[in-house]
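Class prep. Write one:
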Amino acid sequence: MTDKGRYRIHGDCIICGAHKNTLTCENWEVKTHSKREILDAKKKRKKTATNKKAKKLGFKILDANENVQTYIKRYLREATKEG
């Protein structure tokens, strides 16, 4: 039992063989997520990964030479005019 009154089930997964841990409530019931919750979590992970890649690219642009920066600024101006 953990400090918050939950139980920990641990063992090897029969599908992938990895060692897994699962926390349960006081009644030893494992909460299952709906398909909607799973899809929302996948979308959130994908969005987070995309934002992380965009930030890395942004830092690379800031470190680039002036010619690249002027080209990108011009491109962004044209893109915002169209939108």
